[in-house]
Amino acid sequence: MLGFRLGFVLSMALLPVGLLAVLQARSLMTEARARSEAALVGETLRATQPELRLIRQGQGAAEALASVAPILVPAATSDPAGCDSVMAKAVGSSDIYSYAAFLALDGRVLCASDRGMVPPVDAGRIASLDLPLIPTRTEVNDPEDAAGLAAVHPAFAADGRPVGFTLINMPHTRLRAAAATMAAHKDNFALILFDTNGRILSANRQSGEATALLPANRSLVSLTTGDAFTFTGDDTSGTERSFAVMKFADADLFALGSWPTTPTTLSIFRNLPAVVFPLLMWAACLIAAWLAAENLVTTHIRRLRRAITGFSDGRRRVEKLDMRHAPREIREVAEAFEQMTDTILHDEAELEDSLHQKEVLLREVHHRVKNNLQLIASIMSMQMRKTQSSEAKSLMRGLQERVISLATIHKGLYQTTGEADIRANELFPEIVRQVVKLAAGPERRFDVKESFDEVHLTPDQAVPLALLMTEAITNALKYGRPGAERAQSDLSISLRHAGPGFVELGVRNSSAGPGDNGGDGAEGTGLGTQLIDAFVRQLNGTIERHHQNGSYGLAVRFPLRTLAEGEERRGREAGEEAAE
């Protein structure tokens, strides 16, 4: 179909553009994804800066206290109150500090901002962890200040000998409150700080809520393998979130930021393969091409095709073609077709009228020939009644029978005129009845059996075959004799197909002796046999005669001619006559 062919050609034309579009879309999506990841990491970095600044401030305070350890060690023994006041001043320097202490290597509290408060972590744990930040939990009056983060720094004597640790405790509630005043975060944004061992150091959520926001299929330790990356997955509560991980190299800290993924139109398109949009554009182009071909070309061509095929199939009623919306070229073709059909219909009408006139003339010719032959037969009948010689009467009777047979043939041709060929099963039964009617009498009765296939003959074959059959039947009626136990003679005439392109005429009658049908009897002249042989040669056929079991028969086999062969033969004969 034209639409599919046009779509295929357009697909081939759009293929290079489609490949470029796929590559460009893939590049753009990769770039967009990289920008999105960078934006997520940047948002996480921006969100961690306030809290990270406070933590580093606490680490700096712990380091500052550790730097005066050579003074604090003797003061812890000689002036405990003065040493405690140093710790209290450190706590008072910032609202995020809840406790400060100077611990000995064995874990004893040498100085503390609050002697009544139990240290949030023992010295043994500090030594084993060897980390600057330690998650803590203390027993305090305010439950919200129980969990926190301790900044720890080793303290050394003047000679470089380790003498203990300084510790600054920062509750999570104070860190979150202070960070919130420095930078505002979205309510759905979650931020978690953790170390290389996967321990949560800080979060902008309560501890239980922060744990629920961790990735479900990844541990925090597995997230410490890279510097900065993003991924999407479900948290432990089953909610899909986007995660961004980044590392702070100077502090061995990691930040995990996450947002819930809200399905939007853009996010749906972002997850589609890069080839989807070029394919959609390709499909849209094909649909547009198909619609254009259907509306501009195919519909009008289909309508024109139906009209042409209908006219070629013989339907001569041509309706007006509606080509108002067709392109000019197709309208011109439709107009040419309408003009052609008008011309053909006019020519066919003239040809039909001419054929009708010729048919009428041909019928008149056959009718006049039949009348003339019947007139001749009547004249011969009148002459026979006046003739006294029996031999002359016999000869004239035979001639009269042949003339009547010719008249019967022309009568059949007159009745079948107008057809390209002649049906033997319509013409020959009438000839048989006429011939038998002439030969039958009170003392001569015949049992006639006819069998004619539907054989189509050309006129130049129908006439000699009819004359041949007439002579054969005349001989059979003349020389036929009834059987020993029958009062009437048997006569069988058949015309049947004898293989591809051949026809066989058979005539059989009952006879008393082998010489009955040869034309050599008392009344025989042999003229019938000569005429039969002449007609067989005219038909280009072969003849077989046989006598057995009290019956005599002949079989004539000849090839059928087509109408074109007959026309060609008549043309050659007309040319030869003109040459003579």
How would you characterize this protein structure?
This protein is α+β, with helices and mostly antiparallel strands and about 575 residues long. The protein has 2 domains: about 1-270, Beta-Lactamase; about 435-580, Heat Shock Protein 90. Helices cover about 55% and strands about 20% of the residues. It has helices at about 1-65, 70-80, 80-90, 125-130, 170-180, 205-210, 265-270, 275-310, 330-385, 390-415, 425-440, 460-480, 525-540, 565-580; strands spanning about 100-105, 110, 135, 145-155, 160-170, 190-195, 200-205, 230-235, 240-250, 255-260, 420-425, 445-450, 455, 490-495, 500-510, 540-550, 550-560. It has a 5-stranded antiparallel β-sheet with strand order 2-1-5-4-3, sandwiched between helices. Strands 7-6-10-9-8 form a 5-stranded antiparallel β-sheet, covered by helices on one side. Strand 4 and strand 5 (about 160-170) form a beta hairpin. Helix 2 (about 70-80) packs across helix 3 (about 80-90), helix 9 (about 330-385) packs antiparallel against helix 10 and helix 12 (about 460-480) runs antiparallel to helix 13. The protein is rod-shaped.
CATH fold field value of the largest domain: Beta-Lactamase
* Helix content percent band: 40-55%
Separate helix tally:
14
Shape: rod-shaped
The profile of the biggest β sheet is: 5 strands, antiparallel
* Uncertain stretches of 5 or more adjacent residues: 137-143, 519-523
Strand order across the largest sheet = 2-1-5-4-3
Query: How many domains would you count in the coordinates?
Result: 2
Mean pLDDT: 78
Radius of gyration: 62 Å
